[in-house]
Design goal:
This protein folds into 3 domains: 365 residues, no CATH class; 121 residues, no CATH class; 50 residues, no CATH class. The chain has 21 helices and 10 strands. The strands form 3 sheets. It has a 5-stranded mixed sheet, with helices on both faces. The protein is α+β, with helices and mostly antiparallel strands and 552 residues long. α13 crosses α14 and α14 crosses α16. A hairpin with a 7-residue loop joins β9 and β10.
């Protein structure tokens, strides 16, 4: 193997050196920009089992405030303690704003991602022909969903980055006791961030034994590095929970033996194949699966395959499946694409037609990628709830009381009616949450802050007929338009802030009738009620609106 070198310095041409410096600056700007814009969390676990868990030691939460995983003692404490350290350090500089603190966590993840991917590229560049090196670098950072995922302070990303570095160290193949011990430490960290990576780690160890033919002593150094981290993290877990606890066993018992994870949905064994095909966009997904197949056919001894296959097979067997469970593997995809392309293109003799075909496919993928990248760089995380909380906090938060109306168990600060899903981290002291009632819908109070999801069409129509207007959606409208093609999020779940128009007057009469046929026309003095609107049923009743609108 060639000596590992810095990606930016390993360029023969002075011109290419300048280009790569520019690319490095572009990478840093892109990832930090994504970290700033992606307010919120991709999945509730990213917040409620990490940041809110950190709140137990920071003082804003108690055990009763946390998700059920706390009582089951299945969440490792390493990442919550890491968040706690960042919060304490920020506090030394007077930083207490929750939105800035969350951005710091994403910024830290962005830096970790950039360094990890650059190291991985430097280790595997000898396997890629030099003419494909620029493509490898670009793909490794600018596939359209990479920046938004690689800045997430989630267990999947931190586990995957530790796994990525460890595979890079394995590829270097340097005979050093310290190197093998560090590989073991990284394996341990990857495991403690997310226990399921144990199956990827097992595949790598099998590769070292069966393909690389490493000695028992070398494997033992890896083992001791991993054991050290697991022992230290067990101490952290015991400190966090207040008693001795071995969270890997608890996690296995609860989610595998007791099958609790299946309560959150199940999918067939082939669901991940479908997800890989559809989630990145069909064309890109098809190329990823084709690249995997090519690599399997031409180089079945490749360590990347031995890492990926056990991980995906295990997750395919488990009934509960989520796309985010594959996130630890995403940074292996660019190497997979370039290596497979290199294998197939070098074996084909008649290249004229194929070059036209491949260039056409690449052009289509480039267009898809540019649109998706633009969307994801500006898109808030998830359905935009935290982004809207941020907006409300900045514009309306500086008051004695901040009253927000929303449907019961469907507000910005509570993800659902499940235990421990209150976003205490973002709760201001002056916040008052009120439920939207039938009375409020028929006779809304003036000048209130009302939040409804886009999918609550009936309730939104009621508000709009009574002088409320859309002020701010959690996700910008242009992103929702692009999402119709990319399908990243559920548009119906996007929250919208409604406020009342200042110049609006309404004189209205609202009848609550069990029968929509009983439509009455009323007069008030000499004024005829000019318009009528019949709502869809709410709680078994039909709202009949007969109204007159005037503006000052």
């Amino acid at each position: 193997m060639q000596k590992d070198t810095c990606v930016i310095k390993d360029i023969n041409s002075k011109h290419l050196l300048n280009v790569n410096r520019f690319v490095l600056i572009l990478i840093i700007i892109t990832y930090l920009f994504s970290a700033i814009n992606s307010n919120g969390f991709h999945h509730p676990d990213e917040h409620f089992q990490l940041i809110e868990f950190a709140g137990l030691k920071a003082g804003w939460n108690t055990g009763d405030d946390l998700a059920w995983e706390y009582g089951a003692q299945i969440r490792p404490a390493l990442q919550p303690y890491l968040a706690l350290v960042i919060f304490k350090l920020a506090g030394l500089f007077g930083i207490k704003d929750p939105f800035i603190l969350a951005t710091l966590l994403r910024g830290l993840t962005a830096v970790f991602s950039i360094l990890s991917v650059l190291f991985f590229i430097s280790c595997f560049k000898p396997s890629i022909k030099s003419r494909y090196h620029p493509a490898l670098i670009v793909l490794s950072f600018f596939i359209w969903f990479f920046p938004s995922i690689n800045v997430r302070f989630s267990s999947e990303i931190w586990s995957g980055l530790c796994l990525l570095i460890s595979v890079g160290l394995v590829e270097l193949n340097r005979q050093s006791k310290l190197r093998y011990f560090i590989i073991g430490v990284l394996f341990g960290l990857s495991f403690e961030f997310r226990f399921q990576t144990a199956f990827a780690i097992a595949g790598i160890i099998l590769w070292l034994i069966c393909i690389r033919k490493n000695s028992f002593r070398e494997i033992l150094y890896i083992f001791w590095g991993g054991i050290l981290i697991v022992a230290l993290c067990t101490s952290l877990d015991s400190l966090f929970y207040g008693q001795f606890v071995f969270t890997p066993y608890n996690y296995f018992r609860v989610n595998i033996i007791e099958n609790v994870s299946s309560h959150y949905g199940t999918a067939p064994w082939y669901a991940y194949i479908t997800s890989i095909l559809i989630a990145p966009n069909f064309l890109i997904g098809a190329v990823i699966l084709l690249s995997f197949t090519i690599l399997l056919g031409y180089d079945y001894k490749n360590i990347i395959l031995w890492t990926i296959i056990p991980f995906i097979v295990f997750h395919s067997v488990i009934p509960h499946k989520e796309l985010r469970f594959l996130f630890p593997l995403i940074n292996f995809v660019p190497f997979l694409l370039i290596y497979a392309y290199q294998q197939i293109i070098d074996r084909i003799k008649k290249k004229n037609f194929l070059e036209i075909f491949f260039n056409s496919v690449l052009l289509a993928m480039l267009c898809i990628n540019l649109g998706g990248l633009a969307m994801m760089l500006f898109k808030p995380a998830g359905n935009g709830s935290i982004n809207l909380i941020h907006y409300i906090s900045r514009k309306y938060g500086d008051t004695e009381s901040l009253t927000i109306y929303s449907l019961k168990n469907n507000n910005l600060y509570i993800s659902s009616n499940s235990e421990g899903l209150n976003a205490s981290f973002y709760l201001p002291d002056n916040l008052i949450l009120k439920d939207i009632t039938t009375e409020f819908l028929t006779h809304p109070e003036p000048n209130r802050l009302v939040v409804l999801s886009k999918g609550h069409y009936t309730e939104r129509v009621l508000l709009e007929k009574n002088g409320y207007k859309m002020e701010k959606p959690g996700i910008p409208a242009w992103i929702m338009e692009l999402n119709k093609f990319y399908g990243v999020f559920n548009e119906e779940a996007v929250p919208i802030l409604y406020t009342q128009e200042n110049d609006y007057e309404r004189d209205s009469k609202i009848f609550l009738l069990p029968n929509p046929d009983l439509l009455l026309l009323q007069t008030k003095g000499q004024t005829t009620w000019e318009e009528q609107m019949v709502s869809p049923p709410i709680n078994g009743f039909i709202f009949i609106y007969i109204y007159k609108v005037s503006y000052k």
